[in-house]
Amino acid sequence: MRILGIETSCDETAAAVVDDGTVVLSNVISSASSRYTDLKGVIPEDAARCQMECIIPVIQQALKEANTVPSELSAIAVTRAPGLLGSLLVGTSAARMLSLSWNVPVIGVHHTLGHLTSVWPGSENDPQFPSITLSVSGGHTDLWLRSSHTKGILLGRTRDDAVGEAFDKGASLLGLPYPGGPAIGKAAASGDMTAFSFPKPLSSEDTLDFSFSGLKTSLRYLLRDRKLEISQPDFPLQDLCAAYEHSLCMHLVDRLEKAIEANPQVREVHVVGGVSANTHLRVLVTDLLTPKDITVRFPAAFGYCTDNAVMIASAGHALIREKPELLGSPFLTEATANLDEVLSA
Ligand code: KG4
Ligand code: ZN
């Protein structure tokens, strides 16, 4: 089954062609993020305008690179929610229009299901279930127990900021550009993570939920109380990044460890989303799971961690296989969508 995936939930315009959920034939992304580096955030209307201009050329390029004509497609999978409404409308309108003109059915995909499926494309062997998936990005931080690609339950979620947001806001306090995760990771690589310490969030509660806003506030107070200013020549940027990154990652690993203890039947852990590109997090998770004889999977390419259309095509494939009634069914394009809708029981 050959699927064209389309993803436009934030400032990227992405299209990809994927066979059988796992063989990636093309992966094209046009990102407007460099327009917003100095603004520390995206301007929604501006992003949607850029996407309107490039959506059709990006799709054409994805088909060309995959050496595919529309009649060879079994479906078009498109991100339907959540995200920036104008951006989502560009992607879903294009998908609906092409569906009519090519006579290829369309399927709407929840963006988070795309991330959950992102360890599948390009993998040497298919993901095994039951698995625990730690999904970490700029918009969400969730722990899932999954019995298949599209079935499972939510074990825990963030009560405030997402971990990617904590990276981005921390980077802003430290004078680093947006998005903050890659910048903090780079500076942290040569820093001493023991130079500063941060509190452990929700440490007194028996929960699999996360909370990141306190860590960001602790960083702000630390800079204030120690009179550290980014303009100082001896500003300890690397050490601050290493300690802050470690505290964010340890909160994730702590919850993951608890989830594994509570679900001993699980043989695989998947870590997905933009923050799964973080090297320190990968090392900590691998160190946790190796002695437990649990397989850990990250997306097969760094480009599948951050927003991309490959994961949407793979998620579309999984949905068609497990819930065939959804193919060609009407769906809503929505800025917000409940996490409860991502997986079914
Ligand atoms: O999944 P994604 O591309 O978009 C959302 O759905 O949110 O994730 C973007 C987030 C940003 O917050 C960015 O700072 C973070 O992922 N990120 C990273 C790294 N690369 C991207 N965080 C930590 N380390 C990285 N290497
Ligand atoms: Zn995302």
Written overview of the protein:
- The chain contains nine helices and ten strands.
- The two termini are 25 Å apart.
- It has a five-stranded mixed β-sheet with strand order 3-2-1-4-5, with helices on both faces. It has a five-stranded mixed β-sheet with strand order 8-7-6-9-10, sandwiched between helices.
- The protein is an alpha/beta fold and 345 residues long.
- Strand 6 and strand 7 form a beta hairpin.
- It has helices spanning 44-65, 85-102, 111-117, 163-173, 180-188, 213-225, 237-262, 279-289, 310-322, and strands spanning 2-7, 12-19, 23-31, 75-81, 106-110, 131-136, 141-146, 152-157, 268-272, 295-297.
- The mean pLDDT is 95.
- Helices cover 38% and strands 18% of the residues.
- The structure holds 5'-O-[(R)-(carboxyoxy)(hydroxy)phosphoryl]adenosine (KG4) and zinc ion.
- 5'-O-[(R)-(carboxyoxy)(hydroxy)phosphoryl]adenosine is lined by residues 137-139, 164, 167-168, 179-182, 185, 273-275, 277-278, 306-307.
Structural class: alpha/beta
Distance between the termini: 25 Å
Shape: globular
Share in helix: 25-40%
- C-alpha-based Rg, rounded: 20 Å
Number of E strands: 10
**Unique ligands:** 5'-O-[(R)-(carboxyoxy)(hydroxy)phosphoryl]adenosine, zinc ion
- Low-pLDDT segments: none
Percentage beta strand: 15-25%
Briefly, what is this?
With 345 residues, the chain is of the alpha/beta class. The chain has helices spanning 44-65, 85-102, 111-117, 163-173, 180-188, 213-225, 237-262, 279-289, 310-322; strands at 2-7, 12-19, 23-31, 75-81, 106-110, 131-136, 141-146, 152-157, 268-272, 295-297. The protein has nine helices and ten strands.
